[in-house]
Amino acid sequence: MILRCVAVDDEPFALEIIRDFVARVPFLRMESACLDPLEAMSVIHRTHPDLLFLDVQMPEISGIRIAEAMNKPPFIIFTTAYAQYAVEGFNLNALDYLLKPFSFELFLKAVTKAQEIIKLQQHQTSPQTEREFIVVKSGYQNLKIYVSDIQYIEAMDNYVRIFTEDKTHTTLMCLKNIVDILPSKQFVRIHKSFIVCIPKITSYTRELVSIGKKQLPVGRAYSSAFLEAMKLPG
């Protein structure tokens, strides 16, 4: 993950140090470095950086006021020569506070902490997608089976056996009914007694399907539909 950065400092030498430090950290990329704090507000609004290095004491407007003026500020690391501003900076939920002149080691420690916090926040706010599954009866239980685990399904009178890589599940169900609950682009019926998972197929002919070491027959009545299904992306 690359963190896009903007630095704001009215001292050219201080700004150059931050530029140099950013260039030495692989997960940082400098989007803009601003000497003018008023111009910086426009740059921040336009670029939406992940991380803002913000000097506190500047002419016209302080870094504290810039941070207060933003509705949705990026993560901020304050930089200043005056330790008394630290408390006010942390009251604005700054990630860190670097007291000038700071070393590269302290800079790296601060940005590494920023990277960890940003990663954690992105993980917490990103939607966690549930793997696709089916639910079948097994004895007195409702059994949840992930679709991606299924290799093939075999009919046995009024029962079907669902084969995964490490287990076999038996349920009172006919093959036709289980076809209806499976994703059609991933599964195909190859025989009156077999349904196979297309992505699990390792090789096939018009008469035979191999899933690992297991070989299953292709019924004549299902051959054309099976070959057509194999043209679909798995």
Q: Could you describe the 3D structure shown?
A:
This protein has helices at 12-23, 37-47, 63-69, 86-91, 104-125, 175-181, 223-229; strands spanning 3-8, 28-34, 51-55, 75-80, 96-99, 133-138, 141-146, 150-156, 159-164, 168-172, 187-191, 194-197, 203-204, 208-211, 214-217. With 234 residues, the chain is of the alpha/beta class. It has a 5-stranded parallel sheet with strand order 2-1-3-4-5, sandwiched between helices. Strands 10-9-8-12-11 form a 5-stranded antiparallel sheet. A 3-stranded antiparallel sheet has the order 13-14-15, with no helix packed on it. A hairpin with a 2-residue loop joins β11 (187-191) and β12 (194-197). The chain starts with a strand and ends in a 5-residue tail after the last helix.
* Count of β-strands: 15
Report strand %: 25-35%
| Strand order, largest beta sheet | 2-1-3-4-5
CATH domain topology of the largest domain: Rossmann fold
Under the CATH scheme, the architecture of the largest domain is: 3-Layer(aba) Sandwich
What top-tier CATH class of the largest domain fits best? Alpha Beta
Tell me, rounded to a whole number, the average pLDDT. 86
Report low-confidence residues grouped into runs of 5 or more: none
Radius of gyration: 30 Å
The termini sit apart by: 30 Å
**Shape, principal axes of CA atoms:** rod-shaped
Name the quaternary structure.
single chain
Query: SSE order, as H and E?
Result: EHEHEHEHEHEEEEEHEEEEEH
What class, by secondary structure content?
alpha/beta
The tally of structural domains comes to 2
